[in-house]
Amino acid sequence: MSISVTTRLRPVRTTLAAGLLAAITAAPALAADRSGEGVTVVPLKSSIAEETFQTILVMKALEDLGYDVGPIREVEYAAAFVALANGDGTFMADHWDPMQVDFFHSAGGDETLYREGVYAPQGLQGYMIDKKTADDHGITNIGQLKDPKIATLFDHTGDGKADLTGCNPGWACEKVIEHHIDTFGLRDTVTQNSGAYSAIIADTITRYQQGEPVLYYGWTPYWIAGVLVPGEDVVWLNVPFSALPGARQDVDTSLPDGSNYGFQANNQRIVANRAWAEANPAAAKLFAIMRISSNDISAQNLKMREGEDSEADIERHADAWIAAHQDTWTAWLAEARAAAE
What we know:
- By secondary structure, the protein is α/β, with parallel strands linked by helices.
- The protein contains 14 helices and 13 strands.
- α7 (173-183) links the parallel β9 (162-165) and β10 (190-193).
């Protein structure tokens, strides 16, 4: 299977939705062993290249079930949820739950979207600084950056404020960071640098390698944890208290060990158009039972960081993962086919 990941989502409600609705009405008559034959799938993914691997695994499983899987359409999260709800896309493999719960509910929630099971569990996220600066100055909590003397340690622009490598606009995490800056009284001493995360984190890593203090938002699973290793190169910062925006304002973000990084632990889940999923029980079952470890995702992401980042490379990584988990893969397909009988 040759997978293209370059096509971007366009205003295609009239064309894509028509195709998907046709596929929905045709789905019940398909044979159980090739239950998806003749049914179109439109995969969606954010601009994060490191989410391609997870997406391709789902695509390959759907193709093994006989579905006609099209190329990945790249669109940022908020728009992706709306596209899925409207039938302009079939599934997205990397719904970060609960961080993106507002996007989910804004697009219609359970009435228009289908999500069952957990694809990749327990991803952490939060603020990190280099261990040397943390040890030298006793920094353990981002609230300490309210002190201008501490904040200026991370000033790379000369404005006297700490430069925090943050999130792309539209990822949801950038809103949490801005909320934290306001709630923790950091507006006068900390600036979130938003933009293409892959570019700004590369600059952050270069600064670290040059011996400069660094402050950044990070998450797992992601390749950064293999380059800037938590506990060795960098440390997580706690927050003064739990403080999330929107529907999660009363949520306690503390972890079982008592740490509080300011963000809930997130599961990556497959989210799909509900009408399509209900008309395609084999695919719906597959979405509910597929599961991959965060360690496997991080390991693949690191290969991309080291240069194996072409479409062919990522597809090869997916094929290798399937080969290494063939019994699990076969069991998934058997259970999915049984759901269509």
